[in-house]
């Protein structure tokens, strides 16, 4: 066996977590006051963990690059948060939530972790309500639920289209309470530049104050990385502009294994790219696929005319349209899972049927829904023989009541009225299932270094279900880490404060400063964005929605060349001793240029298709994903040994004792 | 289109600062305002000039980072949007655009268009929470039914993104809309009522300490608020404050 020890407790799956909590070490309240914890990132996972550690009595330091913890990108999550409350009495249970999540992840996640997630999910809702999170309610005053993709029950709690915002403000308020008590020191506008190891244990970080440019040393007995995902390696994504992999990648280079880097979620319904200077993509909630029909022109000449602006989509007759999802997947139609819908859109655009001036978009059409709802509404309100205009008017009202805010957002961005002309959508990078490898305690392969939320790999396998990311972030922060970290820290009660004057801190600080100097020294000709865009292009074209051996090999070469060019020819203006956004971007892009290569290597080595990872060589006759459980039922955990391409593979074999492995089919 | 930009440049908090003129070309109506600034910055880097610093992150109108005063209006000419949601189609070829940071004593400039809004954080540290432990040992979420209207009003107050447009819009640089939104979110819920008196007194005290001005009911804040936070929240705060002052 390899060096990976998942530390999954013995016993039946529903007893593992309770048993584990009963058996692990505790730190007594007086000793907690002598122990320091660093939390990097203040989103749902980091914010909730920091607040809970502080409440338990530990001394906590939080770090975030934003000007306030409340702005972490968890805030942008729209849809909702899952919990197995079974308030609707529709047959939900911890087991069912566990089962749906493992299956949705295409059987590449760890059973024990996912079961624990399902087990604590109900508690999250109780906790958030007690904190004053204003979830949506019914007229009777009780909490409302909605249904989400890939499941058969209504288990999603929500606060309109701003669930992430409300949950994050809840975690932030819990942090505020501890900041007010002096138990959390919050370092905002600070970026973690490196992890410091003393005697093989994580004992602190080197951070840059983004305002003064000062390089600072911070020590602690344990370091928690809750720094989010790495979707921005694609340049264009639904992530925030500042979202980056630096904290996780620095830890990786210091010994933390990186798991399943190629598992990326590409969300099918985003507003398409409009031009070369676009910086960011915006999501349109998955819920739109309940009523929208997805299509492209049936004939290439029509697609071409539309792209050139000579033809309008509304002018195209019904028989000249190709509702390709309904055609290929009659059973699920427009409601196939995210990975399947994304690939199908790409296939049509690659074949030349794409719309929009770029040819990289498909239609999401509400005309049929407007007519259907309009007729129904007219009928129920007594118009037995309504005119076409009346039907459309009534139908638009119904659609507005369901999706009004999304339609408004679409119109603000594109300047087109989606009630009158079909929306244009295209898949975009949204979430990364891969991340730092962690054991059952959420500890990485570096003792004392933990990873939580999107930064770790453990719960979503190869594809994440909607409304599960918020659940995982808060589960890790409120209910898992506060227990498991004590087990490790119990050995540190006599350690005392970790000095920042040791050789390890001095060396780490020196290396960080040298790296910054090297960036300035390049004195080249290209701005940072030039490299980030080029990297994004390679990633999207060759490591995106469908991958093959030849292109993955090319991607590895191209990324390596781009990285070498970056260090020779990047141009950073200004000084290191002031606020300097170019320097911040450069540090982040430098890490993406390494991660990208490992990403491609991971995709190359995984000779199967599963979830968001689709290898063209491994598909069924009709173009569906072909999973290989015999040879690839494992987590790829990569050890850094020098160059990303030389990373050493360690395999954690996945055991499925409670769920039978099946093929996913949506035909 | 081609635009003339008049941009506030300020080296650091000590520097006096001033406007600089820049021309940008090749701007498309589909670009966002911040993407237009990206173009400007890439041009500046190519010329070896320090790019303009500005705060931004999510670029979808929810994080509250962006904070530009455009032609004298917080977040620019459109309504109910943040700067990142403003698109260039709102401008025309040849326009001159004046870009400044949000102006308020309590929001000192850090560099160029970047301001320090930590005063907002400190107002929330003072009482913007319900004192409940995060142990998970709370009662079932459905054990206290909450009137739908109150839950909805609480939600609307809680949608504040903390950008500071209300302060920038106010002639007194008052933070009443922001603070009242926070106070209201909790005051409307049964969970928040227990500490309501203490909360409003502490938060208002901190708000005054930070140097924000008083409210004179002009209502500019509500008009410029990208999330449409209602003035009713200020009325509620005043009521809460009065009640707390009398009864505690």
From TrEMBL, chain A:
Keywords: Flavoprotein, Oxidoreductase. It comes from the Bacteria. The keyword Protein biosynthesis does not apply. InterPro entries: FAD-dep_OxRdtase_2_FAD-bd, FAD/NAD-bd_sf, Fum_R/Succ_DH_flav-like_C_sf, Fum_Rdtase/Succ_DH_flav-like_C, SdhA/FrdA/AprA, Succ_DH/Fum_Rdt_flav_su, Succ_DH/fumarate_Rdtase_cat_sf. Residues 36-470 form the FAD-dependent oxidoreductase 2 FAD-binding domain. Residues 532-666 form the Fumarate reductase/succinate dehydrogenase flavoprotein-like C-terminal domain. The keyword Flavoprotein applies. Its cofactor is FAD. This is Fumarate reductase/succinate dehydrogenase flavoprotein subunit.
From TrEMBL, chain B:
Binds 1 [4Fe-4S] cluster. InterPro entries: 2Fe-2S_ferredoxin-like_sf, 2Fe-2S_ferredoxin-type, 2Fe2S_fd_BS, 4Fe4S_Fe-S-bd, Beta-grasp_dom_sf, Helical_ferredxn, SDH/FRD_Iron-Sulfur, Succ_DH/fum_Rdtase_Fe-S. Residues 3-105 form the 2Fe-2S ferredoxin-type domain. It catalyses: a menaquinone + succinate = a menaquinol + fumarate. Residues 151-181 form the 4Fe-4S ferredoxin-type domain. Keywords: 2Fe-2S, 3Fe-4S, 4Fe-4S, Iron, Iron-sulfur, Metal-binding, Oxidoreductase. Its EC number is 1.3.5.1. It holds the Pfam family Fer2_3. Its cofactor is [4Fe-4S] cluster; [3Fe-4S] cluster; [2Fe-2S] cluster. Belongs to the succinate dehydrogenase/fumarate reductase iron-sulfur protein family. NCBIfam families: dhsB, PRK07570.1. This is Fumarate reductase iron-sulfur subunit. It comes from Psychroflexus lacisalsi.
């Amino acid at each position: 066996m390899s060096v990976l020890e998942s530390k999954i407790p013995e016993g039946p799956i529903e007893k593992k977590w309770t048993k584990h909590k009963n058996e692990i070490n505790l730190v007594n309240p007086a000793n907690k006051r002598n122990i320091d914890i660093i939390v990097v990132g203040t989103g749902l996972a980091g914010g909730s963990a920091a607040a809970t550690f502080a409440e338990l009595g530990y001394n906590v330091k939080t770090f975030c690059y934003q000007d306030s913890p409340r702005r972490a990108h968890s805030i942008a999550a729209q849809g909702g948060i899952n919990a197995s409350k079974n308030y609707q009495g529709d047959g939900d249970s911890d087991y069912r939530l566990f089962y749906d999540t493992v299956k949705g992840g295409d059987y590449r996640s760890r059973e024990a972790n996912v079961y624990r997630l399902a087990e604590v999910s109900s508690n999250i809702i109780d906790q958030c309500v007690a904190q004053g999170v204003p979830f949506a309610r019914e007229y009777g005053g009780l909490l409302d639920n909605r249904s989400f993709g890939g499941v058969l029950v209504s288990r999603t709690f929500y606060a309109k289209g701003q669930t992430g915002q409300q949950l994050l403000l809840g975690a932030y308020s819990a942090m505020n309470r501890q900041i007010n008590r002096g138990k959390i020191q919050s370092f905002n506008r600070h970026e973690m530049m490196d992890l410091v190891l003393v005697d093989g244990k994580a004992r602190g970080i080197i951070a840059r104050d983004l305002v003064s440019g000062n390089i600072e040393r911070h020590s602690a007995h344990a370091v928690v990385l809750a720094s989010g995902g790495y979707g921005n390696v694609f340049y264009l994504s639904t992530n925030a502009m500042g979202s980056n992999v630096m904290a996780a990648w620095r830890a990786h280079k210091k010994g933390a294994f990186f798991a399943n880097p190629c598992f990326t979620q590409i969300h099918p319904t985003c507003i398409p790219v409009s031009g070369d200077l676009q910086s960011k993509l915006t999501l349109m909630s998955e819920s739109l696929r309940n009523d929208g029909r997805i299509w492209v022109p049936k004939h290439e000449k029509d697609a071409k005319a539309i792209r050139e602006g000579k033809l309008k989509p509304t002018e195209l007759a019904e028989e000249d349209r190709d509702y390709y999802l309904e055609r290929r997947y009659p059973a699920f139609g427009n409601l196939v899972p995210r990975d399947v819908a994304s690939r199908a859109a790409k296939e049509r655009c690659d074949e030349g049927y794409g719309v929009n001036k770029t040819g990289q978009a498909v239609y999401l059409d509400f005309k049929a829904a407007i007519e259907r709802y309009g007729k129904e509404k007219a009928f129920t309100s007594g118009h037995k023989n309504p005119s076409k205009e009346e039907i459309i008017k009534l139908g638009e009202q119904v659609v507005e009541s369901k999706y009004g805010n999304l339609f408004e957002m679409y119109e603000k961005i594109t300047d087109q009225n989606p009630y009158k002309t079909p929306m244009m959508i295209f898949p975009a990078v949204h979430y990364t299932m891969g991340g730092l490898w962690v054991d059952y305690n959420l500890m990485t392969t570096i003792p004392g270094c933990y990873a939580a939320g999107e930064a770790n790999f453990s719960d979503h396998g190869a594809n994440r279900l909607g409304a599960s990311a918020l659940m995982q972030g808060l589960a890790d922060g409120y209910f898992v880490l506060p227990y498991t970290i004590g087990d490790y820290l119990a050995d540190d009660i006599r350690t005392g404060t970790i000095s920042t004057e040791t050789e390890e801190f001095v060396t780490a600080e020196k290396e960080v400063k040298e790296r910054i100097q090297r960036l300035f020294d390049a004195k080249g000709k290209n701005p940072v964005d030039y490299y980030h865009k080029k990297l994004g292009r390679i990633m999207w074209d060759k490591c995106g929605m469908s991958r093959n051996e030849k292109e993955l090999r090319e991607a590895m070469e191209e990324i390596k060349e781009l990285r070498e060019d970056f260090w020779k020819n990047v141009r950073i203006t200004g000084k290191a001793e002031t606020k300097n956004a170019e320097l911040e971007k450069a540090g982040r892009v430098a890490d993406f240029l390494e991660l990208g290569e490992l990403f491609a290597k991971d995709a190359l080595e995984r000779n199967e298709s599963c979830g968001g990872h689709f290898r063209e060589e491994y598909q069924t006759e009709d173009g569906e994903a072909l999973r290989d459980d015999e040879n690839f039922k494992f987590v790829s955990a990569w050890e850094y040994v020098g160059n990303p391409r030389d990373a050493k593979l360690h395999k954690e074999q996945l055991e499925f004792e409670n769920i039978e492995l099946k093929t996913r089919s949506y035909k | 289109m081609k635009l003339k930009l008049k941009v506030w440049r300020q080296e650091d908090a000590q520097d006096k600062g001033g406007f600089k003129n820049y021309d940008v070309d090749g701007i498309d109506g589909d670009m966002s305002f911040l993407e237009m600034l990206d173009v400007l910055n890439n041009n500046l880097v190519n010329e070896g000039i320090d790019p303009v610093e500005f705060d931004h992150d999510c670029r979808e109108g929810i994080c509250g980072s962006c904070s530009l005063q455009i032609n004298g209006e917080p977040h620019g000419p459109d309504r109910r949007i943040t700067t990142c949601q403003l698109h260039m189609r709102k401008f025309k070829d040849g326009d001159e655009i004046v870009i400044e940071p949000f102006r308020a004593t309590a929001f000192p400039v850090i560099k160029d268009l970047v301001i320090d809004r930590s005063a907002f954080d400190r107002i929330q540290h003072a009482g913007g929470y319900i004192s409940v432990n995060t142990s998970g040992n709370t009662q079932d979420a459905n054990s206290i039914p909450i009137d739908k209207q109150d839950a909805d009003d609480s939600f609307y107050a809680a949608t504040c993104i903390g950008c500071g447009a209300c302060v920038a819009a106010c002639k007194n640089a008052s933070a009443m809309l922001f603070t009242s939104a926070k106070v209201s979110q909790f005051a409307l819920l049964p969970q928040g009522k227990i500490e309501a008196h203490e909360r409003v007194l502490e938060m208002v005290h901190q708000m005054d300490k930070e140097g924000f001005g008083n409210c004179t009911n002009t209502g500019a804040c509500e008009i410029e608020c990208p999330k449409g936070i209602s003035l009713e929240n200020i009325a509620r705060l005043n009521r809460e404050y009065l009640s707390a002052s009398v009864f505690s």
